[in-house]
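Researcher: Please generate the 3D structure of the following complex. Treat every line as part of one assembly.
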Amino acid sequence: MIKVKNPAHIAIHTLLIIGSIFMLFPFVWMITTSFKGDDEILNTSKSIVLLPDLVRPGFLNNEEDQSRIDRRTERERLWALEQEKPTGERDKKIREPFKWYDNYLYAWRAQPFYRFFLNTLFVTITVTAVSLFFASLAAYAFAFFNFPLKDTLFMLMLGTMMLPQQALLIPNYIFLSKLGWINTYMSLIVPWLASAYSVFFLRQFFKQLPKDLYEAATIDGCSRFQFYYKILLPLSKPPMVTLGIFSFLANWNSFIWPLIVTNDTNLRVIQVGLSYFSSEAGTRWGPLMAASTMTILPLVIMYFLAQKQFVESQATTGMKE
Amino acid sequence: MANIRNKDWAAYLYLMPVVTILLIFHVMPIFYSLAVSFYEWDLIGQPEFIGAGNYMRLFDDPMFYKSLWNTLYYAILSLPLSIISSLVIALLLNNPISAMGLYRTIYFIPVITSINAVAIVWNFIYHPDFGLLNKILAIFSIDPQTWLQDPFWAMPCIIFMSVWKGLGYNVIIFLAGLQNIPKHLYEAARIDGASRWQQFRHITWPLLSPTTFFIFTITTIGSFQVFSQVYMMTPRGGPLKSTMVVVYYLYRKAFEQFEFGYALSMAFVLFVIIFACTLFNKLYLEKKVHYS
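Model: Done. Output below.
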């Protein structure tokens, strides 16, 4: 419940609510459209109909909606009649009326979306896990060891954070094509296994840990690697979760790189699959909205499970896609 | 901490994976693209050295200038739109109101979603015949437009969608900036009888300027990297190439016309532009902003 103590807050809430509607409405429109049939979507009338015919309460219908619903009821009746006949005698012209999940079914059948999801999950989880492992090793070295060229290496690594990825696309593509890695999972995974940002973030975290922790452990006979995986890793769960979410987001949403390095349907990730489906489906808006909903859904679920880390991971990185 | 005189050579073992990958995929490509940009090459045949030929051609290419201008136009239009709207929302959220967490959640949702998926949704919203936008305008008796198919409107449509998508991110940065402004300044101003507008004009705005500049530069840098929304919403660079931005042009040259040497010269110019902006951002601005 929103409780208002200060009258000025009513104005603030009003403005914020209008803003919220503006932020959310495209998603609402996407979801409701994904449950509409073509005759509902492709109507050029001036009225805005938000809810699908299947769930809209009757009193909201105007004449036009009512006639569309009547046509649908008629179609359902004809279809049911036709179904009673033996298979051979059915009239082919009477098509099955729209069911609420038809758009999802259409999208799912038009492109191997299950494959796209599996590919994306595989790439995303591999990159996230391995890059965090590598980054934690490097951050450990930067935070606890002394070695020649330490500061130079660290500065160089920070410098790579400033390199624009879009300018690296073509040279990396040429390099991978020489390696014969185009159209392999390797090209989707290997270049992203190192994240300078993760190293920096974890090093900052390690530096904040009590200094005598390392000394005490080594005096007790703890080897360097034991200290890393027995003490450091369990301690660094919070920064790891933040970085993990950031990496998951970035990989789930990455588009231009997989678009360039793969053209095999079996290797296609979800964003590339969605773009192909978009050019193929043309104005089949129902299935397109269904596919968009399916792509966004895992992100939104994750977001509501771990909101705080989501906002943090974005706000602290200073990065946009 | 380990003894200073101790040289832990084992450290290199821990650094090796990250450093190797960074060198191969993030540092070398810059030098490689500079080197190959002096060749004419389709990736299959033999590269042919043509000196500064690609660069000469690039600076004579009207489409390159058009793509640069379109990119700048994107930046120029999205900057005020995005800064003003996110600042207004951040100022509203900076009050001690209830349900603040809920609002932050809502405004942030577009940021986490996939640009490709929301581009499809906005394609539908902008559709000339069945789209929501024309239907809403019809309520106010405004004539329907063809939006993404119109050379004048295509880019503003993409910009509007992109501002909507990135808004929540800027709001978070602005909120952090606002919360860093000492409260006692406002109390002193109130005692002196300063109006709300005067407080904003003389306290909030000047003290927030590092944050504003930070958003200014990252938005500019982001503009030079725009690709997905253009690719998804206006195939082939839009009506009269009105949405042909630099990265999209570079993509076309390399992966549709296979002029790799030429595309690399463009990539190098892009690299120089973005790197200059980033350097400026890092050296002059980031030190003054505590945005986390």
